[in-house]
Amino acid sequence: MEEPVTEVAQPAQSYAFWHDRAVFHFLTQATQPDKYVTAVRRALKPGGQIVIAAFGANGPKQCSGLDVLRMSADDIHSELGADFAIVGSETEIHPTPWGSTQEFT
């Protein structure tokens, strides 16, 4: 059985780069974002970078039947904390196979 990223003991200072493609927005329970940030802080090397792709502020409220968080770049930065700096951000409107669109940050 796979463990959620919020429950895995990440190796200390092991990664220079953390890429999150559609994980963070599924962390809807109160303690999950904090646990995620703790895992990132532990795992990143000093000077390491993180990229998070999540549903934007105007994105869908659910994905695959699951509730999701909708966040701007500033919202994501607020969750990560002042130790992280925004190097850049983009908002993308993604067309779905069923003909609608979804906003990503």
Describe the model.
The mean pLDDT is about 95. The longest helix is centred in the middle third of the chain and has 12 residues, at about 30-45. The relative contact order is 0.20. This protein has one domain. It has helices at about 30-45, 75-80, and strands at about 15-20, 45-55, 60-65, 65, 90-95, 100-105. The chain is built from 2 helices and 6 strands. The chain is of the alpha+beta class. A two-stranded parallel sheet has the order 1-2. The N and C termini lie far apart (about 30 Å).
Report low-confidence residues grouped into runs of 5 or more: none
Structural class: alpha+beta
Largest sheet: 2 strands, parallel
Counting copies of identical and different chains, the oligomeric state is single chain
Q: Compute the gyration radius: what is it?
A: 14 Å
Separation, N- and C-terminal Cα atoms: 30 Å
Q: Percent of residues in helical segments?
A: 10-25%
Mean pLDDT level: 93
Strand order of the largest sheet: 1-2
Number of domains: 1
Output the helix-strand order.
Answer: EHEEEHEE
Count of DSSP strands: 6
The total of helices stands at 2
Q: What fraction of residues sit in β-strands?
A: 25-35%
Shape: globular
